[in-house]
Each structure stands twice: as C-alpha cells, then as structure tokens.
Amino acid sequence: MADEVKLYRTWSSRFSLRIVWALHIKGIEYEAIFEDLSHKSPQLLQYNPVHKKVPVLVHKGKPICESLVILEYIDETWKETTPLLPQDPYEKAMARFWAKFVDDKLLPSVQSVFTEKGYEAKKEALVPAVKNLEIIEEQLKEKKYFGGESIGYVDLVLGWMAYLLDVFEEVIDLKLFDAHKFPLLSGWMKNFCDAPAIKQHLPPRDKLVTKYQLLHEKYQTTSN
Amino acid sequence: MADEVKLYRTWSSRFSLRIVWALHIKGIEYEAIFEDLSHKSPQLLQYNPVHKKVPVLVHKGKPICESLVILEYIDETWKETTPLLPQDPYEKAMARFWAKFVDDKLLPSVQSVFTEKGYEAKKEALVPAVKNLEIIEEQLKEKKYFGGESIGYVDLVLGWMAYLLDVFEEVIDLKLFDAHKFPLLSGWMKNFCDAPAIKQHLPPRDKLVTKYQLLHEKYQTTSN
C-alpha cells in the first residue's frame, strides 16, 4: 500500500536521495512528498521537530529521521529483499565505519572546496579533500562496489559523489577529481550512475548546475 | 580468553568509557591498553590509521574504531547477554537517532560552554546547550533509563554527562545544569553513576578536575 510508506524529500537533497535509491533497490512502494525548504510543511516540522530537515521516512504513521538511521531501518524492516548491509557483525561494523567517514570527513572536506572564497583558498581546501578521496579509493580494491558485487549501504551514502562531483567542478571551474589518480573511484562512479535503480532517480544535471551556480555565487560574495 | 578482546583507551576518554562500560555490562573479559595520546603507540596507529584515536576494540586480531560503531559491534557479537539496543527496528532506529543527537548536537554544545572565552561568551553558549538538554529530558518521561528499566545504548552514549557535568561546573565556575529544571535527567545521572558496572569504572573525580582545569586554562588564554 502506497500510503504505508511516505518519504519527505526535496528534488536535490543528497541525504534524501540515499533513501530514494534504497527504496527502489528494495522495490518498496512509497509516496514521495516534495518539500519546499523555504516553506517547510507542518507535517515535516511535526515529524522532525529536532532537526526540521529532510529526509523523513514515515512508516505506518511513525517517523524516522537522519539518513543513516533510515537506511538501517529500511534494511532491518524489509530484510527479505536485497540486503544493504552485510550480515557479519565485523563486516557490518566496517560498513558503518566508512559511512561515518563519508559523512564526518569526506563530505565536509569536498563541500569546503565548494564554499571557500577564491582560487587560492579553494586550492588549499583541496588538500584534505584529496587525502580523504585517497583513503576511500583504497577501500575499493578488488571490488566493483563498496558493498561487493552489488550496491550496498556505503555506496548509497557516498552516492552524492557519483553525480555531483563534476557539477561542482563545472560550477567552481576547478578540477576536484583526477580520474587517472582515482581509477577505482572513477569506475565506481560510472557503475553507480549506470545502475537502473540509481540512473532513474538522479536529479536533472542542468537543474543541479543552476542550483549550485546560485549557491556558489552566494558563498563567494557573502562575508564569512 | 583475555587476549581475544583488547581495548585501546585512555584513563579519561569519554568515548573509550562507553566501551569499558559496555564490556562490563556484558561481562566480556578484555585487556585494557592505556594509550598516552602525546606518544601514540605504533599499534594504535596501525589499528586506526584513519583517525588515530581511541577507543579501538581489537577482537580476534581485527580492529573496530569509532565508539558508536564499536557499541553496535559488541551488541551484535555478544548478543546472548544483556542487550544494549532494542530488537524492534523502530525502537532501534530511535536509539540510533538519539545517540547521533548526543554526539552531533548535545555534546558539542556543552563542550562549547567549556571552551568559550569569558563569562559572557559562556553564558551565550549556554543557550543552545540548555535547549538540547531540554530535548533530551523529554525522552526520559516514564523511564528510569533511556534504555527503559536497564542501561542501554543511549545511556552509554550520554554517560559522560552523568559524571562530567559537575566537574565542568566546578572548573568553569558556572552552573550548567539546574536539577529543578531537569528532574528526570538529574535522577538519571544519579541512577547511572550508581549502577555497579558504571560506578566501578569511572575516572577519579579529583584527577578529572585537574585535567580539565589545565585544559580550561589553555582555552581561556590561547587566541581562537
């Protein structure tokens, strides 16, 4: 039943897309509710009073917030279809460790290249971002996906990189990612975006470029 | 076997103590290795090359890092004894949500009252910290512990508050916590510290005061 699962999202939220992809990979029917973050709906504020953010998954009337928490909930609730996390406790711990690394280290470091003002500051911010990319590249050795032969938890968490990195590069006019230096990540990005459950649920590139151009302009002109 | 489980920790690390308590609650025999963070051991750097931090749990020679990840690993590996997380996926998601709230919001907000320079700045930093305490207080309604009748995952994650808040208050000479305003948290702090598995594994208060006095002095004298 479509009304059993609802997802509060926006068209471009990186954290919401993780959930969209997971629901499609698992074949879970759901209703998407698109939020305008400048006018958040009373439902969103009621379901996520602490953070007031998307994504929120509502299952049988009960809300779950925070994308990593939602992904684990989905995997534990619909466990018969396509597992996202490994079953072995050690392998599962590793997946959680790398998901946390992506959210706590990699994403903020790439984000800061985008937000820093001016070429020199951006070049400086690139150093830790590249270091984090090197760490993640290592994890793909002898694997198609972080989850092995199929897309799993860490792939979904890192998914923003696969479609957003070259949008960032176009907008800030700076090379973030050298495919020769990161052959495994480069292959992963292609495989990830080509997977049907992902490909059909990526935001339109031209709309992303426009969105991030406006955002970048704002970052470059406002004082810190 | 004692050499099966090793914990790299320091005497006072709040994140290490979560693991110490979990191991004792579960009755897991382990060897504690005390690190000097100004001279990290080659083993610590080898086991946690990404963050180079304690705690690291080594089980059968395999390292697990990040305290929240370690807690889940312990709960999934030694599942026969005293569960830390609820079994129901929704209840489990709620526990994960609140643990994340403690680490992402509550802890940094309390920490910033400690690190801010001068009385006025500290008073200002107190506003979001108190707001976060109010949110957490709400979660204790009709419960002894966040885990219900016994100490669970969220209790361990929030455990630093139970023994450290009044150390902070003494060191910075500012009331952080009004017991009348937070009767449930106040009761929880007492119950938590009195529980045998916790009480026997708390750092000595006088040593904590000395440590945080030195740290506070540093924060108050160095430029931001």
TrEMBL record, chains A, B:
Residues 88-212 form the GST C-terminal domain. One of its GO terms (biological process) is glutathione metabolic process. Coiled coil: none annotated. PROSITE patterns: GST_CTER, GST_NTER. GO terms for molecular function: glutathione transferase activity. The keyword Transferase applies. The keyword Transferase applies. It comes from the Eukaryota. Keywords: Transferase. Its EC number is 2.5.1.18. GO terms for cellular component: cytoplasm. It catalyses: RX + glutathione = an S-substituted glutathione + a halide anion + H(+). Residues 3-82 form the GST N-terminal domain. InterPro entries: Glutathione-S-Trfase_C-like, Glutathione-S-Trfase_C_sf, Glutathione_S-Trfase, Glutathione_S-Trfase_N, GST_C, GST_C_Tau, Omega/Tau-like, Thioredoxin-like_sf. Belongs to the GST superfamily. HSP26 family. This is Probable glutathione S-transferase. It comes from Solanum pinnatisectum (tansyleaf nightshade). The lineage of its organism: Eukaryota, Viridiplantae, Streptophyta, Embryophyta, Tracheophyta.
